[in-house]
Specification:
Blueprint: E1 2-8, H1 12-28, E2 35-40, H2 43-50, E3 56-57, H3 63-69, H4 79-90, E4 94-98, E5 102-104, H5 109-116, E6 121-128, H6 134-143, E7 147-150, E8 153-156, E9 162-172, H7 178-192, H8 198-209, E10 214-215, E11 220-222, H9 230-239, H10 245-253, H11 257-268, H12 272-280
Parallel strand pairs: 1-2, 1-4, 2-3, 6-10
Antiparallel strand pairs: 4-9, 5-11, 6-9, 7-8
Helix pairs in contact: 1-9, 3-4, 4-7, 7-8
Protein name: Nucleotide-diphospho-sugar transferase domain-containing protein
Domain Nucleotide-diphospho-sugar transferase: 94-201
InterPro entries: Nucl-diP-sugar_transferase (IPR005069), Nucleotide-diphossugar_trans (IPR029044)
Length: 292
C-alpha cells in the first residue's frame, strides 16, 4: 500500500495550506496512487471541503501523544517524526510525508514505485551545508568537529555534508526504526545549536548513512518561504465555502504561489550587497497584494 501523509495540527491556517495541497494532488493524480492520511485535530474542517472522500483517513491521536512527539527539545518541527512512526506502525507500506505548504505539479506514482524499491526521498537537495545560505554556513561553523550518535552510527558535520529540505520525507514503513535515530540525532543537534533547521539536518545526515537521497522537487512545489500568504489562503477558503473543487483550484492557482516562491527565493539568495542596493533604490522584494 502507498500512503500520502499530511500533518495539520494546531493553527487553522495550516489546514488551508493542506487543503490546497490535497486539491492539487487529486488533480495531478486523478487515479490516486495512495491512501491519504491527514493527522489533524480538526478533521471536520477537512470533511467540509473534501467531503467523505474514499481513501482519505484521519488517524486518531491522543493529546498526550502530540505532546510526546515534540521530544525533549519540545520542538514542533519534531512532530513529523512521531507522525511517521505512528503511520509506519498502523499503515504498513510506502510512506510519503508532505508538508502542508506544497502544491503538486505531477502524479507521484513514480515516487511511490521508487520507494517500494528501497529509495528514500526528501524534497530538495539544498547543497553543501558549509557553502549554503547564511544560516547553513552559521550552522556548519557551530557544528563542525562535533561527533553525534545516531543509532548504531557516529556521524560528523563535515565539508561534504549535504542539506536536504524536509518538506517531503519518503521511505518504506519497515525501515521506521531509523526514525528513532533521526530523533536522537535531532535532539543532540538542537542541544548543540538551537536552530529550527536541525530536524531537516538530522534527516539529511541519517538518510545519507545508507546511500543517496532522491529529490521530490520535480513533482511538488514547496513554498516554505511564503508564511505571509497563510491568511490569504484561509480567507479564500472561508469566502468560497461550498464552491466546487474546480472553482477553488482556479482561484488558488490565480495567486501564482510557485512564481512568487521562486521570486522571493531569488531575492533571498542575492549577495548581501545586492539586497542592500535594491533596498536603497526602492527595489526590495515585497509580497504581492493578493485579491481573494
Amino acid at each position: 500500500m502507498n500512503y500520502l501523509i499530511y500533518l495539520a495540527h494546531g493553527p487553522a491556517e495550516l489546514r488551508s495550506e493542506a487543503l490546497y495541497s490535497l486539491l492539487s494532488y487529486f488533480r495531478a493524480a486523478p487515479v490516486a496512487p495512495a491512501q491519504v492520511l491527514i493527522y489533524t485535530d480538526a478533521p471536520e474542517a477537512f470533511r467540509q471541503v473534501l467531503g467523505e472522500r474514499p481513501g482519505v483517513l484521519y488517524p486518531s491521536v491522543m493529546e498526550a501523544e502530540w505532546r510526546a512527539w515534540r521530544g525533549s527539545a519540545n520542538m514542533v518541527y519534531l512532530l513529523k517524526i512521531g507522525v511517521l512512526e505512528h503511520a509506519a506502525a498502523h499503515y504498513p507500506g510506502n510512506l510519503l510525508f508532505v508538508d502542508t505548504d506544497t502544491i503538486w505539479q505531477r502524479d507521484p506514482t513514480p515516487i511511490f514505485e521508487q520507494i517500494g524499491q528501497g529509495a528514500r526521498f526528501m524534497h530538495d537537495n539544498e547543497g553543501l551545508l558549509a557553502t549554503g545560505n547564511t544560516l547553513s554556513r552559521k550552522v556548519y561553523r557551530h557544528l563542525k568537529g562535533h561527533t553525534f550518535q545516531t543509532g548504531a552510527y557516529q556521524v560528523q558535520v563535515t565539508p561534504a555534508t549535504l542539506l536536504f529540505n524536509s518538506g517531503v520525507i519518503g521511505f518504506r514503513s519497515h525501515e521506521a526504526t531509523l526514525l528513532r535515530d533521526v530523533m536522537q540525532l535531532a535532539e543532540q543537534l538542537y542541544a548543540t545549536y538551537h536552530k529550527h533547521m536541525m530536524e531537516q539536518l538530522a534527516f539529511s545526515m541519517r538518510f545519507a548513512v545508507d546511500g543517496p537521497v532522491q529529490e521530490a522537487k520535480p513533482y511538488v512545489v514547496h513554498y516554505w518561504n511564503l508564511k505571509e500568504v497563510r491568511p490569504t489562503l484561509a480567507a479564500l477558503f472561508s469566502r468560497y465555502r461550498g464552491a466546487s473543487h474546480e472553482e477553488l483550484l482556479r482561484r488558488l492557482d490565480a495567486l501564482g504561489l510557485p512564481e512568487v516562491h521562486r521570486a522571493e527565493l531569488a531575492y533571498r539568495n542575492l549577495a548581501g550587497w545586492q539586497r542592500t542596493l535594491r533596498k536603497l533604490v526602492g527595489r526590495r522584494w515585497r509580497m504581492p497584494v493578493f485579491e481573494v
